[in-house]
Amino acid sequence: MTDILAQNLLSPVTLAFVLGVLARLARSEFQLPKDIYAGVSIYLLLAIGLHGGVELSRASLDQILAPVLVTLGIGAFTPVSSYLVLRRLGGFGPQDAAGIAAHYGSVSAVTFIAAQQFVSGMGEPSELFMPALLTLLESPGIHVALVIGVLASRAPGSEARPIRATLHEVLTGRTLVLLVGGLVVGFLMGERNWEAIQLLYDTKGSIFKGMLVVFLLEMGVVAAARLGDLGKVGPFLLGFGIGMPLVHGALGTWLGTLAGLGAGGATVLGAMAASASYIAAPPAVRLTLPEANPTFSLTASLAITFPFNILVGIPVYYQIAKLAQAG
Amino acid sequence: MGTVGLKLVTIVAEPVLEERLVEALHRLGARGHTVAEVRGAGSRGMRASDPPGQGVRIEVVVSAEAAARILDHVAEHYFPHYAVIAFVADVAVVRGDKYV
Description:
The complex is a heterodimer of chains A (327) and B (100).
Chain A: H1 2-9, H2 12-25, H3 34-56, H4 61-89, H5 94-105, H6 109-121, H7 130-153, H8 163-171, H9 174-201, H10 206-225, H11 230-258, H12 263-274, H13 281-288, H14 294-326
Chain B: E1 4-13, H1 18-27, E2 34-39, E3 54-62, H2 64-77, E4 84-93
Antiparallel strand pairs in B: 1-3, 1-4, 2-3
């Protein structure tokens, strides 16, 4: 286990993340320019969409059916479990609990990519239709949590905002448009046209990995910028930010194994279940549950859960996947 | 060229509110608006934006009555739960009929 942890810590992706954190803590003026940050994230999402789509055109329906069902189950479960834990054990109000649950019910695409890279590095690459599962997991978690929050508080603080508006916003957001769009384009163009663009978009290629390193560097800066708020969120949320991903990660890994995924795929599904969104969820929560304090949800997802998954969580889910495969 | 006295209303807010605020401003009497992306921090600290910490400054030139309606609207709907400030200044504009 320590071997795997060390191997993960010494990967370029993880080291770049740590460098970003250190740069921020040292008050370096370094920061990725905003437009490059946006450009790199567009590239990464499009690449996993395209590559996943090409692979999807090779997958058979019965290979993917069970993982799809399991993924939808996870999407419905994680926001509810997060909400109940925050409400019952953490003593959070309904809006705050639902706001945080929306983040934990959704998924972090970067965590997904990091997990995919990690398992390939371990020699157990995940099934290449995994990006299709990623798109399924992003939206439901946010909406389940928002509906809970609206029903539980029944007091829209500002102009009432219909869930329909939020649904439109999440479904047309950058992540889903690029992922779903990339999957469709990749699926339609198929193997034959893949070769022409493979050099740039191959998620196992050097270009993709190199861009991921740049992105994680910036993620380190962004996450470290939130570290100052750790004191404001209280010890419960600190524990939640680590404990909840471990529970969801173990569950996702186990269910993935039951659904027939290999150790690599089960690990990636576990990392998806464990991860918390910090791109799609925040604006949706902000507009639908205005009384929810964004400091809680952003600090937990960005300053606690994201680094935890990148540094420790993914190797742990991998270990669980190996045990599940053996048993 | 003669000038006319009007009100400049400035709202600095979380970026998620831009669309809704602009829609409300026009509903309440603005004939145009200007939006700038800004950075900053206030009593609420963190803003839910990507990348975090960004804000928008929305400016409109309107009649005194419209300015009052706008401030009431912002105060009622957004002050309680969002990082928003709003203020009014007197301005002298040319082509006064363009704004009301």
